[in-house]
Structures are given as structure tokens and as C-alpha cells.
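Proteins fold reproducibly. Next comes a concrete instance:

***
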Amino acid sequence: MPRFARYLGVDYSGAEAPNSGLKGLRVFTADGSGQPAEEMRPPPSHRKHWTRQGLAHWLAAQVNAGPPALIGIDHGFSFPRRYFERHHLPPDWPAFLDDFQAHWPTDEENTYVCFIRDGNCGAGHERQGDPKWLRLTEQWTASAKSVFQFDVQGQVANSTHAGLPWLRYLRQNCGGKLHFWPFDGWNVPAGKSAVAEVYPSLWMKRFPADDRDGDQQAAFAVAEWLRRADQNDSLPHFLHPPLTPAEQTQAAIEGWILGVT
């Protein structure tokens, strides 16, 4: 029995400012009808493409209006345990989001990740990580890169540092309607929407690209995989990866990539 009515795949971009239209920010949606996922264009405006700010506002509206949706976003949702230890942070994910946004305010207007990295705003120098550090889920994924590894091909550091404050925004604006997996628990309560970190490279080659570019194909593959996993009842298997109790505790702070088992 499917748990969700809609499936949203988001290919995320960390370029430019939160109010910049970004070609690399794509959204595809699917439902239980069996029709292929379709691209969701941003509301009409002078910008051709989604902005991170506009996307966060739209996602919050979708969650609050219902019905339950499963949302996959392809950037890191948290940092390795060693980051918490280095900066003497409690093992508390909501507190981590608050602390991160205070030092890396990448949700503020006209703020680029590189501006904070260069010391022009924020206080990112007080909250640094080591590019060699990997979360447990990244150690389980052969090609995943560290959330601190900037300036390399296939890096996720920019999108992670740009996206984390918007997860905080969703948490603040969706009340109890949105379950952040696995931080709010490995089980998603019935009737709630859920958002999870995803890694489109796991699934992109499973689906013909047709005329979609790489960013579109990434978002399409996420939406399609989420839909199929829920429809064929394999989703519970992926929501409960085979972790030891100690690994579950670690992943509840570091996060986990849905689909990695």
C-alpha cells in the first residue's frame, strides 16, 4: 500500500545567490497514476528558472497544503560526526541547522557560498570541516564525495552549504507536517510528508534520458525511483538500512542517503 500521493525529485544547485534563477535547479513530480514524472516549472516571473528561495517557499506550500509527498533533494543534509566534535556541538540536528545558518547565512539575499568562503560575510571560518572527512553514508557509497570537498568535479559542497539553511526554513514553516528522514526517526508516520537526502547517480542510468539534460535527468530519476519504490513496497527496506545500533545513532546525526543499503 503506497504511503505517499506525490513524489518530488530535486536536482539542487549551489551556484550564485538564493534569489538567482538557476538552470541547474530542476524539479520533477510524479504521482500514483503511472504516468512518467513531469518537470515542474517555477511560478511565472521575470526569472526563467527556479531560485533556491522560490523553491523552498513552493515546497513549504506543497507540504502544508497536502496530500503527503515524498521529497528527494540531492545535497548533504548534515555533516560528519567529527565536525560536531571539533566545534563542540551537541549531537542535535535542529541545533546544528541553527548554528550552521548563523555562520553560513547562505539563505540571505545576494549571498554566495564563495562570499562566505572568502570571508566577505558570515563567519564560515569558525565552522570549517576537513575535505577528508566522510559521513558513514558516504563511506558506504563508492563515488560520493565529502560535503567539505569544494572545487572538484562532481562536488556537493557548494549545494550542501547553500541548501542547509533552506532545510531549516522548511522545518520552521511546515510545523509537524514534514518528517525529516532519518533525523526525526527512521519510521515516517502515516499521513506526513517526508524529505530525504538522495544521490541521483545511483539511479540516473536506470531511466532513458530522452531529451532531458543532465540536471533534468537527475531530478526525473529521483522522482521516478521514489514513486516506484513506494508503489512496489520496497520503500520500507530503503528507509531501514542494515545498520548496527551504533551506526543508527551516528546516522541519525550525520544523515543518510536514501537508497544506500
